[in-house]
TrEMBL record:
Gene encoding the protein: Mtpap
Name of the protein in question: PAPD1 protein
GO cellular component, one term: mitochondrion
GO biological process, one term: RNA 3'-end processing
Leader peptide range in chain numbering: none
Amino acid sequence: DAEVSTRKKTFTEVQTERLDQAERTVLIKCPPKLNEKKLLQYLSSHGNVESHFFFESFGINALIEFSEKSSIASLQDAVGIPNAAEHHVVPFKSRLFTFTLKNPVNRPAEETPLHLSPQCPIPVKNLIQKLCLADSICSQMYMLLNEYQLTEENIKLRFLACSLVRDFARAYFPDSTVKPFGSSVNTFGRLGCDVDMFLDFHDTRKHATKMKKGPFEMEFQMKRLPSERLAVQRILSVIGDCLDNFGPGCVNVQKILNARCPLVKFSHQPTGFQCDLSVSNSIAIRSSELLYIYGCLDSRVRALVFTIRCWARVHGLTNSAPGAWITNFSLTMMVVFFLQKRSPPIIPTLDQLKELADAKDRHIIGGYDCSFVSDLRKIKPTKNTETLDVLLGEFFEYFGNFDFRRNSLNLRKGKEVNKPESSPLYIWNPFEQDLNISKNVNQPQLEKFIATARESAWILQNEDKPQRVINKEPWGLAALLVPFGKSNSSKMNRMKGIGSETIRSLLDSLRLNNANSQQKAVGK
């Protein structure tokens, strides 16, 4: 019930609640052996502890959420400065603390085992063993989702990481906030994924409009720079230096300021995350909200996306390093498009969501229309009742036979449309309609995707589940998560020629052109 109630909230409501939680939260590094009850008793002397959990990142850590923000100030007043005998310390008082026992030798009887909240997904080998115990492919897909999705604890840690960075930013920009975007908030994040965060000055801009009323006008004197890009680079450079020089646990700080979207990359050891910090990227935030809406509308959406992304990772179709591979974002959009194309559709197109938008949902960003409804209650539930096992097989069939040579995927309309240019895979950016989000994908990678999709469709159609269970072999989804071996002769026959898709396409094109030429000659 709690999850359903969370799902009904708008994206903005959820983000606001999470950011508020993070501001009332501290992180404490604990000794390996600890009396949990006594730690909580001590912390309760500073205020009511709303929630807490323990996790591992360079040792044992506790995330403590207080009911009131004032409890943190009370705790900070009572905490000591580290001994500077060996190293001189930077006197920045953050919300990161270290808890030690004064006489650890005398208290072995009081120690109790701590339950550690998992912060990374289980290995695929272990996942396959679990999936084999399920009773259907649908159950397997929901089991995979449950193992890989972000946990409540992990989400709290992500918002805390942003809140700790915000503490530095506010030293320079008191009205600024730091918010997560992308996989951390769009409901499609996998345990272990990076934290994308952005520095937002939206509150500052809102404050500026307040002074426009009345017979006079007063405004702040501010540094003026020739371009917004230069301002972004300067701001990120300073925040990057702050994190590098003064941020406890912030290591490997890299300032990548000349990228198309300038950013600062760093590792945040206290939470265990790799982080990317940029300055307000409004279209990226709208993309996060759009995916949040799709993820909330129907439970099958997330289950199918997580399944396809795990399948792609196992078969080397995606890769964490940049390159010519299909990205997780592109894969997610392919699943969304596929679900828009079902009959009846499982999720609406972006144009349909735009029709439901009211005045407060209207967003024009850089000339692009990014408007769509934010209130989930306004979107009618689908009448489609297809089961996940059917959808999984149909997904592989659909894209295993898709005419990538001619057609592109347009999520605004939910239609296949002619490709505007010759990229092997063309997926229209939902908002910046002149951009292809899969422009990086080359022909060999696309052909590998097609071949693996066809093989997966064949396995699902032809497998003998009872026999595989008797033989203690992976079945259903589990069978698709085992890398396909070259010893499988039937597979080799099915895949013959798939690698030469480009050559076949060229030959078809030549025949077509030749036929057209002959027709024209006859006509003359």
